[in-house]
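## tool: complex_structure
## caller: assistant
## args:
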Amino acid sequence: MTEPLSILALNHYLLLSAVLFVIGFIGFLTRRNLIIMFLCTELMFQAAAIAMIAFGAYHGNVQGQVFLIFILTIAAAEAALALALVVMLHRRRATLDADCWSELRG
Amino acid sequence: MVEMSIIYAACVAGAIGLLFLLPRRDRRWAPIGAVLGGGALGAGLLALSRGQVAGGVDVFFYILAFLAVAGAVRMITHSRPVYSALYFILVVLATAGLFVQLAAEFMAFTLIIVYAGAILITYLFVIMLAQEAPDDQHPDALTEYDATAREPIAATVVGFVLLAALLGMMYRGTSQMPAHAVTHVPADSELEMLLGKVDAALREAELIRHGERVESVDAADRTATLISTSPESPRLVSLPADLHVDNVDAVGVSLLSEFPVSLEVAGVILMLAMLGAVVLARKETAGDAAASDPKSQAPTPKPLGASS
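## result:
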């Protein structure tokens, strides 16, 4: 194990993580293509992964990395279900526009 | 708090830059947006370090961080979905490079194999299956929903207010944390659970005799206790100097000794997701309709003796 991360370096990684998360968030809100919206959630997962690994390096243990294994599991499950839903919706209306399904609102 | 005002100003500049970059019919303002966004990212990073050299951060961090952020911005602003997915692969590769910087090699390669190799390829398949052109005359034309953004101003404002709040909290929180965490574990303590690895290393260094096996390891003293049927058993030998726990060993020991239940739950989640995906995505076939229709089912055999 290498030297634990300093606070200054941890700040750098957390800033990068926050920027990536917000970019994914904005993408999720602005894009109208269903597949791109789900890609943006994957980007937010990436941001969380960077924060996990950086905090793990700061504490000098591997629990952050172990947690990332579970994040990857959830991401894989989410991708499988989301893509199955997208395929189902596309079969029904032949479009990927999220606004076409706006009557689903409560 | 000069650096916080620089970071907040960088958030405003980044918001304006991203607003210009989001997909729209008129692409004239996109280069200005790119310059503003890049400048905002650089100003934010410089405000954090304030000219100091941070331990653990070198020029590769800045290169990889720039690649990750630029790939992410291009991913949400590119109007063709296939390119968006390819830019996301760039983000994944840059993130994997950052993990190598943080001495997490196993997770870096797992990320490349699982994300770039499996999840993103599935996304690409679905994008290519579901892609449609608006009409047959212009097969390269963009569909309306790919070419325009939904509520770009509101989303950008909300997003960057969130970013400013996150960074403010982060800066205040980390300035109260100790410079180095006290939870640092002693080096190579996992060797006490990795008897097989110690055994192999001792055999390679020819420190272990025929018929002996490793009974226990003391990582603090760097010694191993060997037992055998010979009269001088048990016997202490010192470990080879180049025997260390690498990243894969540490992750494996932690995963199986501290989180075994979570590992089982992760397996259950994966299996349920697989079943759910199959149930959601399969087509209704003629056989299904016949099976669910009670009239078309095969006639039940009459009870014995009823026919006579």
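## assistant note: Chain B touches chain A through 101 residues (CB under 8 Å). Chain B is about 60% helix and 5% strand. Handing back to user.
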